[in-house]
Prior knowledge:
Helices cover 38% and strands 17% of the residues. By secondary structure, the protein is an alpha/beta fold. The chain folds into two domains: 116 residues, Aspartate Aminotransferase, domain 1 (Alpha-Beta Complex), CATH 3.90.1150; 226 residues, Aspartate Aminotransferase, domain 2 (3-Layer(aba) Sandwich), CATH 3.40.640.10. A seven-stranded mixed β-sheet has the order 2-8-7-6-5-3-4, sandwiched between helices. A four-stranded antiparallel β-sheet has the order 9-10-13-12. The two termini are 29 Å apart.
Amino acid sequence: MKDSFLLDPSLVYLNHGSFGACPRPVFEAYQRRQRELERQPVEFLALERGFPARLDEARRALAAYVGAEPENLAFTPNATTGLNAVARSLALDRGDEVLLGDAEYGGMERLWEFVTRRSGATVTRRPFAELEPGPRTRVVFCSHIEWSTGRVNDLVPLVARTRETGALLVVDGAHAPGQLDLDLESLGADVYAGNCHKWMLSPKGAAFLYARPEVQDLIEPAVISWDWLDDASFPERHRWQGTRDPSAYLAVPAAIAFQAEHDWPTVRARCHELLSSLELPFEPLTDDYVQMRGFRVDHPDPPDLKRRLYDEHRIEVPVFETTSGWVMRVSVQAYNDEADLAALRRAVAS
C-alpha cells in the first residue's frame, strides 16, 4: 500500500505516531475543498450560507466513527487545542488536586503545570494503575494510548472510580482513533480529545473534543467569537475559530471511507503482527500495544543513534528522553512492511 501514500520513497518511515501520513485519495479530497474555498471564500465560510451544514455532515460521520452522539462532539485543530480549552476553563482553587498519569505527553504536563501554577492547585503524578482519586482530586488526566510506550490503558475501571468521587476524567486520546475501535458514549469518560490526522489518516489539522452533556457547560471554547451565544449547542460554541481553512475537517469523511474501502481491521491486525515480529537489542516497554511500541534504549549516546539512523540510513524513527530514560518509539502503518523493520534492525546493529 506504499503507493497510496505521499511519503518520500527514499525514507524508511517508522514515525507515523508523530504527525501521521495522509493517503493520496484523502489528500485529493482535502485539496478539492481548498480549491472550493479559494474560488468563493464567502460562499464557503459564511455562517449564514453552507458552511455549518458542510461541517455538520463531516462531524456526523466522525461521531459515528468514534461512537459519539453528534451533539457531544466538536471539531478542533488538534487534541492539544481541545485539551487546552478544557484545562483552562476549569475553576481550580488552592488545595485542589490534578491527578496525572506518569507517562503523559510533555506538552500536556506543561499545560497542567501552567493551569495549577495560576490557580494554586497541585499536580500529582502516579502510574496509571495507581490513579485513585482522593477527596481533593478535581481532575484525573490520563492517556488512552501512551505517546512514548504505545501502551493501551484500560479506562473502564477509572471511569467508575472518578464517577464515584466526582472527579472530572479528562482523557488524552490523541493516538486512539484509528488504532482502537471507539465507543465514547459507552466508555463514559467526561471529556475525551482525539486526533484525526494521526491514525485516522486525515489531513493535518483535524481533531475532536468530546464531552458528556453534564460537563459541556464547564468548557469554554479556545476561541470566543461569533458562535459564542447562551443558547448555542456544544459543537456550535466551538465551531467558529476565526478565519481558518476548515478543509481538513471536511476531508475526515474521506479518511473514514478510505479505511472502509481497504478493510482497515485487517490492515491494523497486519500492522500489529508486523510490529510484534520486530526484535531489537532494546527492552520493549509494553505488551499491550496496537501499531506503536516503545523500547528502552540501552545505548551510550541515544541522540547520536537517532542522528545516525536518519543521516546514514534514512530511517525516520524517534528517539527521545522520558522520565523513565531514553525511548525509541516504532510506529507501523499500512505502508510499512518487513523490509522496513529489517532495515531498522540492521541499522541499530551496525
